[in-house]
Records
---
Amino acid sequence: MGTLVSVVVPCYNEAAVIDATYQRLTTVMDSLSASKDVDYELVFVNDGSQDQTLSLLQGFHASHPKGRGQVVVVCLARNFGHQVALSAGLEIARGDAVVAIDADLQDPPEVIEEMYQRYLDGADVAYGLRNQRPGDGVFKWAATRVFYRLLSRITRVDIPLDTGDFRLINRRVLDVLNSMPERHRYIRGMVPWVGFRQEPVSYDRDRRHSGESKYSYSRLFGLAFEGITSFSHTPLRLAYIIGFVVALFCLIYGGFVVATVLIQGSTDGIKGWASMMVAITFLGSVQLITLGLLGDYIGRIYDEVKRRPLYVVNDDQSRLPPDPTPRG
Ligand code: UDP
Ligand code: MG
């Protein structure tokens, strides 16, 4: 058989849509395997779902027609979050080329064909580039846009704008990715970090097929913050920058005060309550914010040095391939 292609799908409470996802993925991969002589595996990672997702996945594993690829189910012991679930799938996937895709059909599986073509043409990574995001609302759209621009300005890795985790990665990039030990994972930033030949494949992002987005605004904000702090030390320099600006301001103001004393003999006539309050509260909050930022980086160091495993697999409920050693 030719190349093995793995498709990794993290699933958290996706019972409403997972059957449709499975059907569409199978259709796409069957046609790919017919036209390009590829073998495939669908790696579903159940990220501690509380609904019927797991039993549906196990059903796919059992009923998947023989000789046309296979369905692998990885069941995590609890909800570990999207990025960790995806990491688990990427580690278990054995493919020469591995595709990461969301379970909710927002990323159309048909795009995989084009990604695979890029892979054949020699690209190491083919990443999905979103044209538009219907159904996300203007605010989410604008926020995402601003965030990606900000991120690429303050980090040294060139993280492509408007990409999610939908991408195809070949074995040599995947091996590097899997060997990256960090506990705080931001995969859409880690893949560009690796380098090699990475090419965009643009597509229109669909509305979520059904069910709800698992990312609330606060989680989205968390992910954004994660992206910034794991790729940049710039926030740590914030204290410097603000400190210098305020020092400059103080110098000018100090000159003004000295001049007043020299000219008027004293500063007794100047009322100062309001400006004093503003200065104190402003500097107080700046100090608290920078302290919080420091704390964030320290917490991150703490999480890394604990060296806990990234995720825990529940073997009893997983349907892993018989031979767990990676190919090749
Ligand atoms: N997901 C997961 N664990 C979580 C949250 C989400 O595995 O804790 C999966 C989810 O099932 C989906 C993908 O991650 O396949 C993206 O989630 P979602 O569609 O909710 O995110 P959005 O598209 O709104 O960014
Ligand atoms: Mg989604």
Note: The two ends are 13 Å apart (CA to CA).
---
Amino acid sequence: MKTKEQPFIMVIFGASGDLTKRKLMPALYSLYKRHRLTENFTILGVARTAYGDVQFRSYIHNQLNKFLDPKEYQAEEVGEFCKHLYYVAMDPSEADDYLLLANRLQELSGSAQPNNILYYLSTPPSLYGVVPVHLKAYKLNSRGSRIIVEKPFGYDLESALKLNNIYASVFDEKQVYRIDHFLGKETAQNILAFRFANGIFEPLWNRNYIDYVEITATENIGIEQRGGYYDESGALRDMVQNHLIQLLALTAMEPPVNFNATEFRNEVIKVYNSLVPLTETDFKEHVIRGQYTASDAKKGYREEQNVKPDSRTDTYIAMRLNIGNWRWAGVPFYIRTGKQLPTKVTEIVVHFKETPHHMFHQVGEGSAQNNTLILRIQPNEGVQLRVAMKVPGSGFEIKQTAMDFTYDKLGGLPPGDAYARLIEDCIASDPTLFTRNDAIEASWRFFDPLISYWKQHPDAPLYGYPAGTWGPKESEAMMNEHGATWTNPCKNLTDSDQYCEL
Ligand code: BG6
């Protein structure tokens, strides 16, 4: 029987939490609806809330009604899905409570040694090191089990190393699925297809033709109800150390020999290991930390719930990275992320070098002699190549124009949901799109000196930026050093616009 067809039980720790209702249950339901799950599956919710099975089913049914795309929600089908749900009320930090879990798993699987069990840790990170130890104590870590752990995996290098050691003492590395949902995004995976399934881009994809690269992931919301978590984490740990660095790896990696877990993940780690260590000058000049301040109707970060009134947590980071290898030496990668910016957009902008000689008169904005390629991860997913064309009429005037591909042109299929894709991969025991232990460590190893620098220099600059703007002006100044400016996707965004067109 293929792994996918085997009966499985997914145990969700943190079953009454935010991620479960917003992402995990909708993803599982969408897999169920598309017949991507075996018929014999069970989802066992674990949390402290005192639900029974019936109450849990009705709670999840209501949440699906709220968080599913209305086109996906069909009451009867959701009801059928919910029949697969069970619940055990327990405290995941209490060793003794795992007896309840063990008994429930035995009852649901009909075996004293249940096998195909997937544990999903959707809990506060403080439990990431605790749950596996208790699972082991009750022999719930059989070889057929897998554990999915949300980010952030660790708080710095030391804590990540500790966590990896704990996991290694309970599971084989191949049973550990460190999830970074950006890798589950169709459009992030498309970077690989775009680069390695086309012959025409790869010869240009290097320092000889590329001037610099921007990787942007901005959001037009604040921290919402997550002050407690975010104030301890900040943008560097929340977005840069994982999501942005993954996008960087996809953009900069060498072609893997095969698209399998080992080869792909070997190439990811090579990129991380090639990052040129940041120096003290970089900390001061090539890392810009920001925090949003109040503007119009928008609250400042320090006014948010569960945030310290004198907090120095970063809600914006822009930085310049360099990759020290043959392909990329001398090509800066500028990455940035921030909360409360004008729009939500994630994209990679590759700037090619200028033509060596300007023969034509250029009209319109920007340098018409400089091609740009935009890989839009979200929203309005697609790819755009900006090229120079002759303006019709007499003379030779040149203007930039765009060659566009948008995902909605692919047979009307919207890009799939990242969580659904990754959960399905885990069910099928395919860890390719999950982060390996060495990659987590390499990534923390790179950022750790910066984290220590901030710790040792509590007065290192943290620039304010009014909520709803593109971040601190110092970030623009960093780009200007390279004779460049950030590519802000929408120039004239009005309040009623949410997202920019590609
Ligand atoms: C999460 C971060 O990992 O990614 C959030 O914790 C952020 O702070 C989110 O909002 C962004 O993900 P997406 O898929 O909405 O771009």
Note: The radius of gyration is 24 Å.
